[in-house]
Structure prediction request, 518 residues.
Amino acid sequence: MQRATFAALACAVLVPAALPAVAPAAPAKKPNPQADVSAQLQRAVTVQGMLRHERAFANIAERNGGTRASGTPGFAKSRDYVVGRLQAAGYTVTVQPFDFPFFQETQASTLERTGDGAKAYTQGPGNDFNIMQYSGSGDVTAAVTPVDVTLPPSAEPSSTSGCEAADFAAFPTGNIALIQRGTCPFSDKVDNAVAAGASAVIIFNEGQKGRTDSQGGTLGSAKDVPVLFTSFDVGNELAQAAAARAVTLHVVTTTINETRETYNVLADSKKGDASRTIVVGSHLDSVLEGPGINDDGSGSAQDLEIAEQLPSVLKKPKNKIRFAFWGAEESGLLGSTHYVESLTQEQKDDIMANLNFDMVASPNFVRMVYDGDGSDNPDVGPGPVGSDLIESLFTSYFDSRGLAHRSTAFDGRSDYGPFIDAGIPAGGTFSGAEELKTAEEAKIYGGTADVAYDPCYHQACDNLANLNLQAFDEFSDAAAHAVATLAQRTSDLTDDEPQAVGRRKAAKMKAKGPEARR
Prediction:
């Protein structure tokens, strides 16, 4: 362009002066290599590439008992697949072993009411009850005693049932404790019940919208008594009956609680400043009940595809990138916790950011971004300094594409937890799990109101058919943009360096439309 313009100016000297002068050429736009790398990486990371990895995970699960849970052959095969792909892509790969408490229910559990009002309850997702992870084994028939329950439930989650030893002051030794979900960890409730002499524990969901099903949960470590989780309806029924007369329950659980070895897989780029390392994380394990193709095969497949495509797009990253595939997330964030606790303070200080991707292809999805500055979730608060910039990196990207989004709190349910506890800036995206999509969200994002974001969450049906490919495509583009941008950043996350998609505004960018705000 410039050469053609100069030639025209030279010819103008030979023509009459009355002719209009040729306007000077507009200065060429300065290229933005950061934006170029982001765009190239987004194009390179395709749904087809991610599905190649998802099919591998699905095949592994199918050949190994339908699961990829830590401590099983399915997880070991998933580890080997990821290690092989990362080594072939040129990364320095470390497999980090650690021991963890393995739990498995080996026979279906029993929950039935005996005597007057005899009734058998049904186990399974969406039914009456589920076993809790790390429940002990036992065969117990005893009277049920409600412990400080709040019925009807309050408008907002607030039950403190079983959270204090004082709640069990008059508890009859040998009875079955009936405890309401809320406020403190499940493990605290169970430990208090066992200390008071409970022979078994029934925890029932609290009762507010989105807190009614028999979804189960983890107790964090092995317990000595049977522990079941029921729907609110079952718990309410038992509590009301026990308030009127003695109610006897028969509870049977058969479980394995033992120590097994599992692994984290860590893959480092060979170039980049190690004092500004970006840890891009997803968990590689599923639950025992299913193959985990969305939770979190989707995050693992996305991160693996980004890792494979990045070296051809960005040959000399300014900062080191570490792709981390965590073990035993489903057992309580154990892999990421082990990794962070294994670091010296100097090594922690060298981590510029943790990007966490846990479920990015939910079938009834919402585009959620972790609330780094805490502005939408003041009760939870912000992440460590710099988390607000990570949040803005995602929100400005979605805004630039005209894609609605909303924030989600750092509620400690995924592998960013140990990083923010250590003061490391964190952020990422999330497409939703067991909570129900609201009518307002259905208007904005499509999908179906009053249906879970992922109806197959922690179930056998979390398979290839459970993936929303539109969400997979959009979330992976946002992740590729964040990785490419942070890989080229020239300073820590303590100032507001211009990014590839606009400069961060003083006020946090919101989702398109007021309905998308939390």
Summary: Residues 469-487 form the longest helix (19 residues). The chain has two domains: 36-91+269-516, 102-257. Confidence is low (pLDDT under 50) at residues 1-26, 499-518. Residues 36-91+269-516 form a domain with the Aminopeptidase fold (CATH 3.40.630.10).
